[in-house]
Amino acid sequence: MPNARPFDKNIFDSKMKFRLHRWIQFVETVPKGRFLYSANAGHFIHRDDPELVLWGIKMALQSDAGRK
Which residues contact 17 (CB under 8 A, 6 or more apart)? Predict the structure, then answer.
């Protein structure tokens, strides 16, 4: 691609840090909110990191069972 910009790892890391910080700030406003990050997953987390998905479901079900 002639118009593609070269990859700059410093810019990527800076933007990622900013995005993660914003998500964490948002999650902290939600009662019992959790922020889960998987370095091994992309858009298809259920395929890329199924164990994390299962763990999240178990945590949600345990939390819900504790309310009853």
Answer: none
Give the list of residues 6+ apart from residue 63 with CB closer than 8 angstroms, or none: 32
Distance, in Å, from the CA atom of 12 to the CA atom of 10, rounded to the nearest integer, reads: 5
The owner of tokens 């992309």 is 42
Rounded Cα distance between 26 and 3, Å, is 35
pLDDT string in tens for the chain (68-residue length): 566 778 899 999 999 999 999 999 999 999 888 888 888 899 999 999 999 999 999 988 987 666 65
The C-alpha angle 41, 21, 49, rounded to 5 degrees, equals: 15
pTM for the whole structure: 0.61
Give yes or no for a contact between 45 and 52, defined as CB atoms under 8 angstroms apart. Answer: yes
